[in-house]
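Fold sample X.
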Amino acid sequence: MKIKGTNISMTRGDSEAIKVTVKDTLGNTIPLVTGDTISFTVREYMMSTTKVIEKIITEFDDGTALININPQDTNDLRFASYVYDIQLTRGNGTVKTIIPPSQFLITGEVTYD
């Protein structure tokens, strides 16, 4: 996986993980806690109603979220550019998009079944 800014590129069918931490405007880490939810959503294009990948994280280790992408999440996707974002919903109902819509590129592979 390659991450440049907020854009992600990964090989179709690979196992990957994205570690998510939240920081305030001063750069201080704000821990994720019980009751919070991190939503990772990938669509073909911005206004698509179909989610090609969706991961909901509600358990956190040391205040961070780990979004695991498994081979079966991308095995059937075309080699193409998709769009994703990451949203935080706090236990008190506050919603914040912490990664704005960005490129999620699925690249080719030679070794696959």
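Fold sample Y, listed below.
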Amino acid sequence: MKLKIDQVADALYLALADADIVESEEVASGIIVDYDADQRIVGIELLHLSKRAPDLDVGRLLYETVPALPSQ
């Protein structure tokens, strides 16, 4: 997984896989989902990032993994 913030384009791209993009769909205004040949999501792009998250500090991004629940 890779996160890319392009301050010039004012966009964020979350790459979920390293596959070729064969189709893109704008699922909401400025939110684009990219798919591979098997219709799996390989990336998500958010346009107009500064308007969506005006207080975002791109120098301070956190990565957090939520622990799995124990099996019952």
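Sample Y note: The CA atoms of residues 10 and 50 lie 6 Å apart.
Also: The first helix runs from residue 49 to 52.
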